Amino acid sequence: DVATAIFTPIEYGTVGYSEDDAKKTLGADKVKVYHCSATPLEWNLNDERNGELGYMKVIVDTSPNEKVLGMHILGPNAGEVVQGLSVAMKAGITKEHLDDCVGIHPTFAESYTTMTEVKVEGSALPTKGGC
């Protein structure tokens, strides 16, 4: 579980399994993916980015506590956000831990604490969320 970030104009951060690798390793029936789109506050206040969305997802197993297997973020400061999430993964974070956390408002990362939409193969990306 080594956190990785790519510092492009829209940063990408990841830790843990990718969605495909989790399904290959555990079986598709043992993996659930939560995801959301969110508008980062700094994009809301920027004429060049206003209306654009970032994206994040949490990959969990289907056990009752939904242990987090991977986390991915596409948006501003993704490297900073994923660093903290990697520590949480090392400590055994579950979806319930994320749900029980009070997010700091208005931040892009708070979307990890309010994520409820389960990804369905072939469905469109979520269209709105966040600040």
Structural commentary:
By secondary structure, the chain is α+β, with helices and mostly antiparallel strands. 24% of the residues lie in helices and 24% in strands. The protein is built from 4 helices and 5 strands; from the N terminus they run E-E-H-E-H-E-E-H-H. A 5-stranded antiparallel beta sheet has the order 1-2-5-4-3. The chain is globular, with a radius of gyration of 14 Å. The mean pLDDT is 91.
Give the topology.
Blueprint: E1 4-6, E2 12-16, H1 19-26, E3 31-38, H2 41-44, E4 54-61, E5 68-74, H3 78-90, H4 95-100
Antiparallel strand pairs: 1-2, 2-5, 3-4, 4-5
Question: From N to C, what is the helix and strand string?
Answer: EEHEHEEHH
Low-confidence stretches: none
Structural class: alpha+beta
**What is the overall number of helices?**
4
Terminal CA distance: 29 Å
Q: What is the residue-averaged pLDDT?
A: 91
Q: How much of the polypeptide forms β-strand, as a percent range? A: 15-25%
Strand order of the largest sheet: 1-2-5-4-3
Number of strands: 5
User: What's the overall geometry?
Assistant: globular
What fraction, in percent, of the residue positions are helical? 10-25%
Radius of gyration: 14 Å
Largest sheet entry: 5 strands, antiparallel
Structural features:
131 residues; alpha+beta; five-stranded antiparallel β-sheet; 24% strand; globular
Brief summary of the model shown:
With 131 residues, this protein is of the alpha+beta class. The chain has four helices and five strands.
